[in-house]
Please model this.
Amino acid sequence: MKFLFDDPAFDYQALRTAGYADDGGAQLGEVVAVAAQIPDGDTEAWRHAWATLAERVHLLGTAARTEGRTVDARSALLRAHNYYRTAEFFQREQQRDPEALRLMRLSRETFADAAELMDRPPEFVRIPYEDTSLPAYFYRVDDSAEPRPTIIHHGGLDSTVEEGWFFVAAAALARGYNCLCFEGPGQGSVLREQGLVFRPDWETVVTPVVDFALSLPGVDPGRLMLVGTSLGGLLAVRAAAFEHRLAGCVAHDAVWQLGDVVWLPPFVMEWVERGCDEFANPVMWGIAAQQTFTRWLLRQTLWTFGADTPAQLLRLLPAFGLSEVIGQVRCPMLVLDAEEDLFFAGLEHAKKVYTGLNSPKTLHVFTADEGGGAHCHSGAMRLFHDRLFSWLQESLGADRAQAA
Model:
């Protein structure tokens, strides 16, 4: 489903940005106007146009806050946050690019400013993790001690803790659920500021988060659910295989094996397997140079998985899979799929996850005809929320009361 660009990577990221309009993260006219300024595949023009928009909207929010116009300030700051994140997205020429770091700092700061102006501001917390801590936002329905169903959410390959507001938290609050959104190794500020990369044993990340969640006020220990988005759809299922205090888990969307995602000519894979990196690496860089999406994906995965070369990366990825642990999941599972997924279309990841599960399970495929066929249903968040909370209500007996 084409949105605004011919370049698939630009088109999807524009749709992702626009899709957050449902919960205040974008304005369609702003997205369409800025997209018209950007030539397909020109990542420098992308950065400049989105950053310029973010700065302009940020100024609107700052002025509104100074004048005491809380609603207008919150709206503008949420949008500016999202536009800063979008501006930074393709900045992967160097991992510590100063401009990329500046944009992500502004993205975090403007979200924090917007969060302070929410009807019920979330609590920013640090979750103890090994010898450090993980950043998180805890969104509570109210100040009462009433035990409520609570969702733990984390993203995937390029998500931030702030995006949890648009993915799940806003919708959860509206339906009477608390929500704890966190970043783990390989994600957001944990990657950029702490230097921690993805690890396949994701249960070692989720278990201390569950410990922390159960210490929070108003969390019902019998109705604690985990939702993982994008690559998080694999990581969350992996965690659920070991963390049995979860009342349910959602793969948004399901990923079976990271090694299956990478498509390369068979002879390149043979070179990697034989250790002929001096041949494999330049060929993979050459393939990546042909397309914006592939170039970004290779640079992003090298960084987030802590690999020095493409060949080394390919040797790391097979450890991120579910075949050996899927049968250990005990809690109910909602397995989601997208018909036109930019990353996984045609690889039957969701089907493999669903088939491998022994616990109560539901599979739902979002289609292009209903507007939800894109990766993680960007542009159709209301459809995703409808499916998610319907399943929670039906399968888990979670709080049925819908906020007005």
Summary: The two ends are 34 Å apart (CA to CA). Residues 398-404 have pLDDT under 50 and may be disordered. The beta strands are 123-129, 132-139, 148-154, 178-182, 219-229, 248-252, 333-338, 361-366.
